[in-house]
């Protein structure tokens, strides 16, 4: 490994080093002071000097050998057993874990500090590789209760620190073994802050995550795969993650001493259309007094109404809402025509908006995490919410018969709507939390009150 002074000399002195790396001389002074070259300058230094990654003095406390990161060299640095190859050819090296496999998807980031297992099993993450900004992922292991679906939909995960031994009484399996059993690759040792900044500034890129214990990667093939993937826009993934047959759901939310319960005295019958529903949404409905029947995403209005529901719930789900146009919108319009109350969450919110004639669009970087502030315009209250969406409703395209009820206090985008001429409302975020705060549970009660009022009106 060379010293900072060696490298500055190789680059032709401080002024020349600054101009080679496109930085000011102040940055070079900081390198000298810290006796380290920050990772973001490594690619420029490597290309100007012809040195290899293991020659560079990195951030103190980090060993380059074990922290391969944003360098774009095609040859893996020593110890690299995994990589993320982006559609523009950028390569991020790291240590592979989980299954030895490769998968292509959109690379997004999630800022949640808890609940990685719920996140990995949220069907809305189909087609996505998740960068966790929280560094300690895997430290509470995995268990069979915190699953939001039986099969994880996420295509891969990227983390800062290596996964440690689980330290939690609920853990039944190491995250590594759990990922192996589900065929999912992980990548550790990545500068996830730098990757998150890349996503924030440039939008969520498409990429391939690859894990090989022998460290031998066919980079040309991975680059071609990443560049050839069409992206989430226009992609209908709800059809892939929905249930194949209808089923009844009566399990209620988890409680500290008793675990999950059963709804034995429901007051309202709800048909939940499964576009990729998280289990905890179904539990919240059951806990609020609903007898739930889950039906596949492609169920028609007639099939839904044949259950004689007091209300219809439209679930969350993956992919582009506009791509479900041929089956979801006609079914929802048919349901709304019957005046049955409708409540939608996330993809369900976007589909309700499309059914009312509004439009959706792709957000540049999406909202994913458990700390997203939202204002309920109907009460003036602010709630901290759990979110996971890459598309959003354009409120300017809403008809006169719908109003905006919730907005994001991060970027002002739409977070909720309600029809003004019929009982239908929806939110873009995840009131069931899991993981995240439970501030928004009141929405399940709003839905129940809406069903009760509708029944009273019909009586
Ligand atoms: N959680 C969801 O339902 C996500 C909805 C949609 N797939 C989006 O990314 O916006």
Automatic annotation (TrEMBL):
It catalyses: hydrogencarbonate + L-glutamine + 2 ATP + H2O = carbamoyl phosphate + L-glutamate + 2 ADP + phosphate + 2 H(+); L-glutamine + H2O = L-glutamate + NH4(+). One of its GO terms (molecular function) is DNA binding. Residues 80-210 form the Carbamoyl-phosphate synthase small subunit N-terminal domain. It holds the Pfam family CPSase_sm_chain. Residues 56-77 are annotated as: Disordered. InterPro entries: Anth_synth/Amidotransfase, CarbamoylP_synth_ssu, CarbamoylP_synth_ssu_N, CarbP_synth_ssu_N_sf, Class_I_gatase-like, CPSase_GATase1, GATASE, Lambda_DNA-bd_dom_sf. Gene3D superfamilies: 3.40.50.880, Carbamoyl-phosphate synthase small subunit, N-terminal domain, lambda repressor-like DNA-binding domains. L-glutamine binds at residues 124, 317, 319, 347, 350, 388, 390-391. Its EC number is 6.3.5.5. Residues 1-260 are annotated as: CPSase. The active site is at residues 346, 430, 432. CDD domains: GATase1_CPSase. One of its GO terms (biological process) is glutamine metabolic process. It comes from the Bacteria. It is an enzyme of class 6 (ligase). Composed of two chains; the small (or glutamine) chain promotes the hydrolysis of glutamine to ammonia, which is used by the large (or ammonia) chain to synthesize carbamoyl phosphate. Tetramer of heterodimers (alpha,beta)4. Belongs to the CarA family. PANTHER family: CARBAMOYL-PHOSPHATE SYNTHASE SMALL CHAIN, MULTIFUNCTIONAL TRYPTOPHAN BIOSYNTHESIS PROTEIN-RELATED. Small subunit of the glutamine-dependent carbamoyl phosphate synthetase (CPSase). CPSase catalyzes the formation of carbamoyl phosphate from the ammonia moiety of glutamine, carbonate, and phosphate donated by ATP, constituting the first step of 2 biosynthetic pathways, one leading to arginine and/or urea and the other to pyrimidine nucleotides. The small subunit (glutamine amidotransferase) binds and cleaves glutamine to supply the large subunit with the substrate ammonia. This is Carbamoyl phosphate synthase small chain. It comes from Neoroseomonas lacus.
């Amino acid at each position: 490994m060379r010293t900072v002074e060696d490298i500055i000399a190789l680059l032709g002195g401080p002024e020349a080093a600054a101009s080679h790396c496109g930085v000011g001389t102040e940055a070079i002074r900081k390198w000298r002071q810290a006796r380290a070259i920050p990772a973001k300058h490594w690619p420029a230094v490597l290309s100007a000097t012809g040195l290899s990654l293991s020659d560079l003095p990195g951030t103190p406390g980090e060993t380059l050998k074990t922290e391969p990161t944003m360098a774009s060299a095609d040859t893996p640095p020593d110890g690299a057993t995994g990589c993320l190859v982006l559609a523009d050819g950028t390569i991020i090296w790291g240590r592979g874990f989980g299954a030895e496999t490769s998968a292509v998807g959109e690379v997004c980031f999630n800022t949640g500090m808890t609940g990685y297992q719920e996140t990995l099993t949220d069907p809305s993450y189909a087609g996505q590789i998740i960068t966790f900004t929280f560094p300690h992922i895997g430290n509470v292991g995995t268990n069979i209760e915190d699953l939001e679906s039986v099969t994880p939909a996420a295509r891969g995960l990227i983390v800062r620190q290596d996964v440690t031994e689980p330290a939690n009484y609920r853990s039944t399996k190491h995250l590594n073994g759990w990922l192996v059993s589900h065929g999912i690759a992980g990548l550790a040792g990545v500068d996830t802050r730098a990757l998150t900044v890349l996503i924030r500034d440039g939008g969520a890129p498409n990429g391939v995550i690859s894990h090989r214990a022998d460290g031998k990667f066919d980079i040309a093939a991975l680059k071609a795969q990443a560049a050839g993937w069409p992206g989430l826009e226009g992609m209908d993934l709800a059809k892939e993650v929905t249930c194949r047959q209808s089923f009844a759901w009566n399990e209620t939310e988890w409680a500290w001493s008793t675990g999950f319960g059963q709804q034995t005295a429901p007051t309202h019958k709800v048909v939940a259309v499964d576009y990729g529903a998280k289990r905890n949404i179904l539990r919240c409905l059951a806990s609020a007094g609903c007898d739930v029947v889950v039906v596949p995403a492609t169920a028609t209005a007639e099939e839904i109404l044949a259950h004689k529901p007091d209300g219809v719930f439209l679930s969350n789900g993956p992919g582009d809402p506009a791509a479900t146009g041929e089956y979801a919108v006609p079914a929802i319009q048919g349901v709304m025509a019957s005046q049955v109350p409708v409540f939608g969450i996330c993809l369900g919110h976007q589909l309700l908006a499309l059914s009312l004639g509004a439009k959706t669009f792709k957000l540049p970087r999406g909202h994913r995490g458990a700390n997203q502030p939202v204002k309920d315009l109907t009460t003036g209250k602010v709630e901290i919410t759990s979110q996971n969406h890459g598309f959003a409703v354009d409120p300017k395209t809403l008809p006169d018969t719908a109003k905006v009820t919730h907005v994001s206090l991060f970027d002002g985008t739409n977070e909720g709507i309600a029809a003004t001429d019929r009982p239908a409302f929806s939110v873009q975020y995840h009131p069931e939390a899991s993981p995240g705060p439970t501030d928004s549970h009141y929405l399940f009660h709003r839905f129940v009150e809406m069903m009760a009022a509708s029944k009273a009106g019909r009586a």
